[in-house]
Design a protein that fits this description.
Length: 367
């Protein structure tokens, strides 16, 4: 339906339809918010700077750097359940140089009582979103609480945990192996290799479990994978407990989506109860964001023709005759009406409409 549009626009329309058919309601936000709100929650902004300005009353405002934080702020404590999707731009400043970036995103947020199905539902929507992008895609699924559970079982200090997270992000088994003694280093090293096809990886994860908490995580991720296999059997899914994730932000399911041709993850998300608690909201929450920027560059439109039909008409041709002719030709594809052939224009077929509405084949312009 949307094949003639640039990739980012086609994906936007396809995902709006997908999210709405899944019961998600569109969320709209203003472009700026009080700077104080972001300052109080800066630990959740992942290291990028804010774009600030003073309004006419001297108040310090910030262009919104994150949609999820806006949704959390506006969630009422008494809300039982809300399922939202958004199509928004966020603004972030690079720490070095101060360059301001506008990032176009789509995403979903499920807020309320998050059970096993709620997590699986969001994972399924993530897989379907990647399918809408097209090409070769991978959806990686992890869980921050599995890693935290292993750290707890090994009795790691905060300082060692920080080093382990950094090494885990780099998937450096050797570094992880040196961070603990008495066999604990080997257990940490195995984390870096916990990545691959769901069945094999989950079996290896079970062997690494040191607590009931870790066993419950494996069972929950297995449920997500089974839901994906049932609904999205063609999705390329891998389980990756070594996914780099901010454990101050995520406390459960972690999602990352990749598309061949785009150098970084196009989809990120997970369960973010810590942000809800920081903002004094009692609910749990899970969601993801898909970055639309770069999709059109990764999937450039390669059209043989600028239009399937070029419809030529004389300036004095009655508008009704041209309109009827364009309507009659619409079934052939893209129709462009002009009084003369634009320079360099490529058309699969060129026709001329006469004053009486007759359509004739032509190779030239009536002007």
């Amino acid at each position: 339906m949307y094949t003639e549009l640039p990739k980012d626009e086609a994906v936007t329309l396809a995902l709006q339809e997908l999210f709405e058919h899944s019961g998600y309601v569109r969320y709209r936000m203003s472009s700026f918010e009080s700077y104080d709100y972001y300052l109080a929650n800066k630990s959740f902004l992942k290291g990028e700077g804010l774009v600030t300005f003073n309004d006419a009353f001297g108040r310090l405002l910030a262009l919104k750097p994150d949609v999820t934080m806006s949704i959390v702020k506006n969630t009422k404590p008494e809300t039982v359940s809300q399922k939202l999707y958004y199509v928004e731009s966020v603004f972030r400043a690079r720490r070095e140089g101060g360059e301001v970036r506008e990032i176009r995103q789509m995403g979903v947020e499920s807020i309320g009582t998050i059970d096993a199905y709620a997590e699986a539902e969001v994972a399924v929507l993530a897989a379907k979103s990647l399918a809408a992008v097209g090409g070769e895609t991978v959806l990686s699924i992890g869980d921050a609480s599995f890693v935290a559970g292993l750290y707890d079982a090994l009795g790691l200090s905060d300082a060692v945990r920080a080093k382990a997270n950094e090494a885990l992000g780099a998937k450096s088994a050797e570094t992880l192996r040196t961070l603990a003694e008495n066999g604990a280093g080997e257990a940490l090293a195995q984390l870096a290799a916990l990545c691959g096809k769901p069945d094999v990886t989950l079996e290896r994860a079970r062997a690494l479990c040191r607590s009931r908490q870790m066993e419950d995580v494996v069972a929950r991720i297995q449920g997500v994978c089974e839901a994906l296999a049932a609904v999205c059997p063609d999705a390329n899914v891998r389980v990756d407990f070594s996914l780099e994730s901010d454990m101050d932000y995520y406390n459960g399911l972690v999602l990352q989506g990749f598309v061949r041709g785009v150098p970084q993850a196009v989809l990120t998300g997970g369960r973010y109860d810590p942000l809800m608690r920081k903002c004094e909201k009692p609910q749990s929450a899970v969601g993801f964001a898909l970055v639309l920027d770069g999709l059109s560059r990764a999937f450039p439109k390669k059209r043989e023709f600028d239009a399937d039909v070029l419809l030529l008409y004389a300036p004095d041709t009655p508008p009704a005759a041209v309109a009827r002719a364009a309507e009659n030709l619409a079934a052939e594809g893209v129709v462009r009406a002009e009084t003369r052939v634009p320079p360099g224009f490529r058309a699969g077929r060129t026709v001329t409409v006469l004053a009486d509405g007759t359509i004739t084949e032509t190779e030239g312009s009536p002007c």
